[in-house]
Specification:
Structural class: mainly alpha
Radius of gyration: 19 Å
Strand content: 5-15%
Number of domains: 2
Number of helices: 8
Order of helices and strands: HEEHEHHEHEHHH
Distance between the termini: 45 Å
Strand order of the largest sheet: 2-1-3
Shape: globular
Helix content: 40-55%
Number of strands: 5
Oligomer: single chain
């Protein structure tokens, strides 16, 4: 990654100085407690693109930790609620709840379930399915919270994949592209047109 992106600062990108970026990661090296953090901790103009990318994508068991951070997906795989909190916070967004419209875009939901009604399992049996269940559960909680708080002002597009695909399963890239092309996005397009078309933005500004 460093070879491809070099030492370019975030400010050199088209969005570096124009929008607020919230890339979640987990600060795992603190002695007191692990905490959810932004991959961009300091002045964005001083952050390197490669450092930000490696912090927020350091998925445990797939990649090593980077600068004391691991992938924020372990606690915020759907970062919609974190984004909403940032928008409402007096220090970062200063927005009123009624003025927030949030479009949440997922990368596809892996089907995960545990068959059985009364499972008396121990660590060995729960180790593998529990991680997937916890990650999916946290995504669902964030989706539920945002939907209840924002109501029509929130839309999430995260289709269920027809098969379970591993994070590192590069042989399934072509299948993922096909699945994405088959997704019905009419509802998402209608919602985006309603709230983010130039006409709708102009009308809301006038209000």
């Amino acid at each position: 990654m460093r070879k491809n992106s070099g030492d370019f600062p975030l400010s050199s990108t088209s969005c570096g100085n124009s929008i607020t970026l919230g890339l979640p990661c987990l600060s795992a090296d603190r002695e007191d407690i692990a905490r959810l953090a932004a991959a961009i901790e300091a002045n964005p103009s001083l952050e390197l693109v490669v450092d930000v990318a490696l912090r927020t994508s350091a998925a445990p068991t797939y990649f090593p930790t980077y600068q004391g951070y691991i992938d924020g997906a372990v606690v915020a795989n759907n970062p919609a609620m974190a984004a909403l909190a940032q928008a409402l916070d007096a220090g970062t967004g200063k927005e009123a709840l009624q003025n927030v419209h949030l479009f949440s875009l997922g990368t596809g939901v892996n089907p995960a379930y545990v068959a059985g009604k009364e499972l008396d399992w121990g660590y060995a049996q729960w180790a593998k399915p529990l991680i997937a269940l916890m990650v999916d559960g946290m995504m669902g909680v964030a989706d539920y919270q945002c939907a209840r708080l924002l109501q029509d002002g929130y839309f999430r597009l995260a289709p269920i994949l027809p098969e379970r695909i591993g994070l590192d399963d590069v042989d399934k890239i072509a299948d993922l592209v096909k699945y994405a092309q088959d997704v019905d996005i009419q509802g998402a397009v209608a919602w985006l047109t309603r709230y983010f078309s130039p006409a709708s933005i102009d009308n809301s500004t006038r209000l």
